[in-house]
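Quarterly update, task 2.4: ribulose-5-phosphate-bound model.
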Amino acid sequence: MSQQDPVTLMKQYVGKAAADRVQSGTIVGLGTGSTTAYAIQYIGERLQSGELKDIKGIPTSFQATVLAKQYGIPLTTLDEVDRIDIAIDGADEVDPNKNLIKGGGAAHTREKIVDSLAEVFIVVVDNSKLVDRLGSTFLLPVEVIPMAMTPVMKALEKLGGKPTLRMGVKKAGPVVTDEGNLVIDVKFDALENPAELEKEINNIPGVLDNGLFVGVADIILVGEVIDGQAKVREIL
Ligand SMILES: O=C(CO)[C@H](O)[C@H](O)COP(=O)(O)O
């Protein structure tokens, strides 16, 4: 691989390591984000070389759909398959119990559907994503139906959060998800019980889903650069 900055190198290595675990004849959940993008690229390269055959991808976002098409990965839908063998997806934070915060790409609702259905869900991250406690470096994304934005923000404040509407970059106004909804990013000073909070937030009328993924991940692959050498560490 060419000379890259360390974070890009970690993302490439970990994406490739995950892509190497995909087997012929399987249904593969394709995650969203810059790390998973490398996994999608390498899966496509394995298909083109003939090393991998007869796989179908289920994309978690418009981004994943575009990349899969670009790299020649045939796609299918949840209506057409009775299983997902493996899903590969990134994360914004990973705690020591393999719980995650996701949604940096505003795709966490579809990601949670696909990742939770997978027999094996592999998370691909660089080592900056490992945290002792969720919520310490990243705000918690909540996808909300537009007309419910204000009451949902008030309900999130009652739960102890500080909500802000996610705004677009190079786009005036808010981020609109692939599902046509809005994203509220919430700061919690003490996110002590992720399992409970995930349910509490999802119980607020108007919330589609939040970025807490509790008990969903099976394997975490962590990209690291040690003494200038890129490596991948596995957390089971
Ligand atoms: O949850 C996600 C998208 O909704 C991404 O997987 C997460 O934001 C990590 O992205 P990246 O690999 O670019 O750091």
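Highlight for this quarter: The pocket of ribulose-5-phosphate is lined by residues 31-36, 89-92, 102-108, 111 (CB under 6 Å).
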